[in-house]
Amino acid sequence: MNIALIVLDTLRKDRIAPYNRTIDFTPALSDFAADATTYTNAISQAPWSLPAHASLLTGLYPWQHGASQRFPYLHAGTRLQTVLGDAGFNTVAIHNNEWLLPVTGVTDGFDRVVTRSEWTRLLRQPWRIDRLEPLRSAVIRLGSWGNLRRTITQTSDLSDELSATQSVLETHGDDPLFLFLNLTSAHFPYNPPDQYAEDAAHQYRSRPLENGGPVVPAEIDRLSALYDAEVAYLDTVFGQVIESFKAAGLYDETLFVVVGDHGELLGEDEILGHHFSVRDELIEVPLFVKPPGGGDGRNDTLIETRELYYRLCKAAGTERTDPGRLYPDRACGIYHEPVIYGSRLPSARRELDTAQFYAVADQDKRVLTDDSAVPQHRSPDRQLVGEPSDG
Region 21-48: what's the mean pLDDT? Predict the structure, then answer.
């Protein structure tokens, strides 16, 4: 059996047909969902890429693995790729997400990593020197500014990720395969290929708050439509990935986990992007699981995305013990203090410059911003306090 962990980066669950019947532009995900189990209550452990992926690949909460804006690298945990590699899997990661670059350590342990910035591995040691935190934060701010400036007019293009995936599948040998694939398209700037939209985000003034804004209310509807166009493009590429598995004769021999790392705010609370908030649109993520024998419809069970680590280990015959949830009946996560992006907030939005811990139950969500309420380690006897919040 092979394992494919496919992350659909920055994808809101309400913008794809399996979760919203009014959507008509995600046929590939609809077809896949028909073969899979669709989880309707999956909660990510963070609303942005680095800690969300670190939790997914270690099974730990963000306050356990340590990856945050203050410490932007993985501190602790045995990575899924290491466990599966030790079990005899050929492990391959394919991505173009800047928070998964070698400097962060998240993809350490893969036999092969296909990314466009492999050179950042050279920065690993200085990146982890604590006293260089101010310099590190400045480098990240400058890098994200430069990345946005570079990509603001670039058309979204996942052809490299698709080609790399097809190459891996076509040359697959006898060993079982663990493929981690991150597809980043539904992410600002929203510049979908011409066949999906006639305009692009760079034609508008609005920018995510993590890039300093501004967020222009009159532009939100158009930007939301551009986001949908990016989702339609993502769906097309996802469909091509699935067809590649079928063409290689591996579709029926593979356990697929298809999940979002976090969502995106499109004007809610006057925010564009995925920082400074733990609203439902950010932390409730799509999740599909298709074993080789197929799935079984919809599942409303509350699940933390970090728990997928333990399920995949078990499926591979290398069961590892989940130490358990912080609260047995809740899914928890955190947005750590935004020490990098907080400095970019407009003065009128400074109240957003804070850590936010969240605990979600079926009919209740609580958000705590008091520093004393932010967990530093697992403490099952803690009493959860705070007012219910709708996010």
Answer: 97
State the fold for domain 2-326: Alkaline Phosphatase, subunit A (3.40.720)
Report the alpha-carbon distance of residue 53 to residue 297 in Å, rounded: 26
Using the predicted structure, report yes or no on whether residue 379 has a pLDDT greater than 50.
no
Q: Where are the domains of the chain?
A: 2-326
Q: Under a CB-based contact definition with an 8 Å cutoff, are residues 330 and 384 in contact?
A: yes
Query: What does the pLDDT average to over 380-388?
Result: 37
Q: For the chain, what's the residue count? A: 391
Q: What angle do CA 48, 374, 265 make, to 5 degrees?
A: 30
Contact indicator for 297, 48 with CB cutoff of 8 Å: no
Tokens in use for 379?
A: 């403490």
Q: What is the reported pTM?
A: 0.91
CA neighbor of 63 nearest in space, from 376, 368, 381, 383: 376
- pLDDT exceeds cutoff 80 at 299: yes
Based on the number of CB atoms within 10 Å of its own CB, is 369 exposed (0-12), middle (13-18) or buried (19 or more)? middle
Contact yes or no for 196/233 (Cβ under 8 A) = yes
What span, in angstroms and rounded, lies between the C-alpha atoms of 293 and 303? 22
pLDDT level of residue 117 (50, 70, 90 thresholds): low
Give the pair of three-digit tokens for residue 172: 């697959």
For the record, the structure tokens of 4 come out as 């494919």
Give the pLDDT confidence score for residue 122 in this predicted structure: 59
* Contact between residue 96 and residue 85 where contact means Cβ atoms under 8 Å apart: no
Tokens 């932007």 sit at which residue?
72
| Residue 381 pLDDT exceeds 50 | no
Look at 262 and 134; give whichever has higher pLDDT: 262
CA distance 310 to 85: 15
Cα separation, 52 vs 154, in Å, equals 26
SS3 255: strand
Average pLDDT over residues 357-380: 70
